[in-house]
Amino acid sequence: MTDKNVALIVGATGLSGSYTGRHLKDNGWTVATVSRSDADLDWSDRHIAADLTDAEQSKAVLSAAADVSHVFYCTWSRQASEDENVRVNGLMIRNLFDGIADAPVKHAALVTGLKHYLGSFDDYAKVTPYTPFLESGPRLPGPNFYYAQEDVLFEMAEKRGFNWSVHRPHTMIGLVVGNYMNMAVTLAVYASICKHTGRRFVFPGSPQQYNCVTDVTDARLLAKQLLWAATTPEAANMPFNTANGDVFRWTWLWKQIADYFELEVAEYPGHPTPLEEQMAGADTIWKEVVSKHGLQDTPVNKLASWWHSDADLGRELECFTDMTNSRKLGFDAYQATRGSFIDVFDELRARKLIPA
Hints:
Layout: E1 6-10, H1 15-26, E2 30-35, E3 46-49, H2 55-61, E4 70-73, H3 82-99, E5 107-111, H4 115-118, H5 145-160, E6 163-169, E7 172-173, H6 183-197, H7 207-211, E8 217-218, H8 219-231, E9 238-242, H9 250-260, H10 275-278, H11 282-293, H12 300-303, H13 306-313, H14 324-328, H15 337-350
Parallel strand pairs: 1-2, 1-4, 2-3, 4-5, 5-6, 6-9, 7-8
Helix pairs in contact: 1-8, 2-3, 3-5, 6-11
């Protein structure tokens, strides 16, 4: 086994992968990265383009990762049904570990999420779990690709003698252009369009989400927890919920976002008004915004993920997490949620992706 920390970030162009890779690089690690296609990542020491659905291709190209000591698996592929999600995503993580079978892996981390407690896309939120979600809670019945990924991880760890950790973030807050699960960027685009058009800035989700307690996960905090779990012996072989450490209600946070964009909060109508419906013509409007303010010419569908924010904000049950496992072991990182959103908004403005 090598004493050198060499990370393999799988899903390096996404939110969790990119923030984790940069954090590890800043802490002196050698960082190898994997994504489906070529990527120019200034923090990556070596990039591998691998189609993890293709066992032969993956095995051939992953020979370039024969020295990795730590794996951070931060990717998934959405399919038409949960049965297909289980099949494809289970295959992908298996092909990854088969491709690095000879690597001196000490630890492997898997990033999943709250569908562990809420159910798959097909059965989403059909149960009413206890809140806050407990890391000790049992799996739900029925297929769930998170469970399939975990089962492969557990199998490989037992077979090859490395430690594992599973990390379950809530809604992820950060900035990666082209990420399709990005609420902070989506809401920034929505607010910018409201300001441009005079549209009412109305909370688009359910009454339950508007009024209930919730939390989110800053991608920077997830990166810190992943590094902590990979280097803390007492944290071996455990699942960890991952959230900022504060809780809030959207009745409060919506006003914070409105104030940032100098908008009035519209009266909540008492029912969802989904962004996907509100923003049906957003591509044309966004071109006007880009032209008027001299922004980067980035299509609106590369910035905003209306459907995913609708799913999060439209839930009809309370959702927040308990972090007992990591807190008991000394992980004390904290991030104020207002700052998570404001930092993304500031970066979007600095990069001329939204108007100042």
